Amino acid sequence: MMNTLTSYTLIAKDLPRSLARVSAEPAVKRDSEYYLKNIQNVKSVDDFMKDTRLYNFALKSFGLGDMAYAKAFIRKVLTEGIDSNEAFANKLNDGRYKELATAFNFVKYGDKATSQPGTLQPIVDKYVRQTLEVETGQQNEGVRLALYFARKAPAITNSYEILGDKALLEVFQTTFSIPAQTSGMDIDRQAKMVEDKLNLADLKDPAKLAKLITRFTAMYEMKNPSTSTSIPSLLVGGSTQIGIADSILTTLQSFKLGGR
User: pTM surpassing 0.70?
Assistant: First the structure.
């Protein structure tokens, strides 16, 4: 395997190409075509949940594929919508459910919900991105986490969103060498810790976000070392050996550890 930083960089530097490759995979292409062809026939939450193929596709596009079995839970998310502060989705710490209810807003749009622009190609694009992250994670979990953080970070508005998302929290803890056991602390103390270590405004700055992710991949590699190997010449124009110690130490030298 290539190390975490190198693998992430190769994908991130030409993300459109990586996404195009995934979208052309036969299974992804078939499922995407089926979704676009049939989703506008769905007129209610019942219709949505009866078509297992559409239902699974939609949940996977929001990273909720492992919750497809919990149909009563998902039904409650969709039937209550997002407009009320008391809506189920608005009370959940995991923002993915609110995103799902926002995209498929049957409460607000009724039988026109699946004809809204946001339920068509944008859902397919989300599905492709999720598939890319999942496939990448099968080779290197650190790269999956980095891709996920890069996608979610610009929209983060408060520290509790990081604490409520297992993947985001793992990136934060790994980046700043914070023991996982701190998750047992009082939630407000954890939030203060995030604020002390991380300026959330920096997440909206592409250059600062890239630097943070570089630090994460270096720290992840330190904890989960990959085997040194050569980068395929197809990707970099020649055979180059990756020495883990040299590459990771060089990366870490550019950061002040233990703080911003």
Answer: yes
